[in-house]
From TrEMBL:
Function: Promotes matrix assembly.
Protein name: Glucose-fructose oxidoreductase domain-containing protein 2
Domain Gfo/Idh/MocA-like oxidoreductase N-terminal: residue ranges: 34-139
Key words, A-Z: Extracellular matrix, Oxidoreductase, Secreted, Signal
Major localisation: secreted
Sequence similarity: Belongs to the Gfo/Idh/MocA family.
């Protein structure tokens, strides 16, 4: 934290130091204690970022006590448990981050909101679970209830423009849901009809070279017809080896924009070469981690200087996906799965308890988006009429 003063530092150095220290201490004290559910790689990336921003991470939950204790020791978390209530009822936990497998998400999120905790959650396992999460969020509107899709916070996207299918696993659910949400966030549109095909090419696998039977998809190809004349074509393929490459390209009548990793480039139709518009300085990390970093920073801005550690300001996290956004995404995912079974175009009808989507005016240029993850296997085409 920096401080600006307009008097002679040599005369008041002790007073200045004390004032700045007190301001920092107050800020840190007012940030809510965090309880984390999960022990995966995302947790290992998130917890140090939270600690760096001044959030006291007070508790962690794991599927087994040994797993939780191991992570707590590794990340310097004072309390660990395999019982969900131990984290939710912890007196120093006011913000809950749910990074568990999808079947656990709804139960933890709904209970956390019910006892007055702010919640950041991953995607639910089913449409029914997503609806219950939306209902809980609406019942407690004063509490934070947002989805953990950190790609929304990546500066390049705000520059002026698992194993068992029944358990919520598969590429469509884990990665495709983030892409569906990001497309809606970038365009201000929502899908009205979808057509999709899912395949499982690798049918045996598992941790440490196991031979577990796999039913979740490792290949997904689907099209979205969105309101306002937007057409999207998405291909997700998780079977090609190689270095991760993330790229989204928007091609229009006036030129193109390319989000490549954490950088944004542009090229007008009259130009021969592209120019760098934004260099995010991601220090070699991928867009997901860089977005996670940005999201945690905005969380700090949302919670700091609040009189109550459960209170938060909405503006810093206004770009975050809400639980209702999560319900929309889950509805699209379920419609794609239905289309895979029927071979037909399927309608996307969000549960009637949700409010209708608010959309922007129809754009006047034509775009095309390409998304690559893992060299080049995930491709998204987006056409705006």
């Amino acid at each position: 934290m920096s401080a600006s003063v307009n008097f002679d530092v040599s005369l008041f150095s002790q007073e200045i130091t004390l004032a700045v220290w007190n301001e920092t201490e107050i800020c840190l004290i007012m940030l809510p204690g965090v309880g984390v559910f999960g022990t995966g790689q995302t947790v290992r990336a998130l917890v140090p970022l939270l600690q760096k921003e001044g959030f006291p991470v007070q508790a962690v939950w794991g599927r087994t006590q040994e797993e939780a204790e191991s992570l707590a020791s590794e990340l310097d978390i004072p309390f660990s448990t395999s019982k969900t209530d131990d984290v939710l009822l912890h007196p120093e936990v006011h913000l809950v981050c749910i990074l568990t497998p999808p079947p656990h998400t709804r139960q933890i999120a709904v209970k956390a909101l019910g006892i007055g905790k702010n919640v950041i959650s991953e995607q639910a396992a089913t449409l029914t679970d997503a609806c219950k999460m939306v209902t809980a969020a609406r019942y407690y509107p004063q509490l934070m209830s947002i989805m953990g899709n950190s790609l929304r916070f990546l500066p390049a996207f705000s520059y002026g423009w698992a194993w068992e299918e029944l358990m919520g696993g598969g590429g469509l659910h884990t990665v495709g849901s983030c892409i569906i949400d990001l497309l809606s966030h970038l365009t201000g549109r929502r899908a009205v009809r979808v057509h999709g095909m899912l395949r499982t090419f690798v049918r045996q696998g598992g941790p440490a070279g196991g031979i577990r039977s796999v039913t979740a998809d490792d290949y997904a190809c689907f099209q979205l017809l969105m309101n306002g004349g937007v057409v999207c074509s998405v291909t997700l393929n998780f079977n090609l080896p190689g270095t991760d490459v993330h790229e989204i390209m928007l091609v229009g009548s006036s030129g193109r924009l390319i989000a490549r990793g954490t950088e944004l480039c542009g090229q007008r139709a009259s130009m021969q070469v592209e120019e760098l518009l934004l260099s995010d300085g991601g220090e070699g990390v991928g867009p997901s981690v860089r977005g996670l970093n940005s999201m945690v920073t905005q969380l700090r801005l949302s919670f700091q200087a609040q009189e109550d550690r459960r209170s938060w300001a909405r503006h810093p996290v206004s770009m975050a996906a809400s639980f209702e956004d999560g319900l929309y995404v889950q509805t699209v995912v379920d419609a794609i799965k239905r289309s895979n079974r029927t071979g037909e175009w399927e309608s996307v009808e969000v549960n009637q308890t949700t409010e209708p989507c608010q959309t922007n005016t129809t754009p006047t240029v034509t775009f095309c988006i390409y998304y690559y993850k893992t060299k080049p296997i995930n491709i998204i085409h987006l056409l705006l009429q």
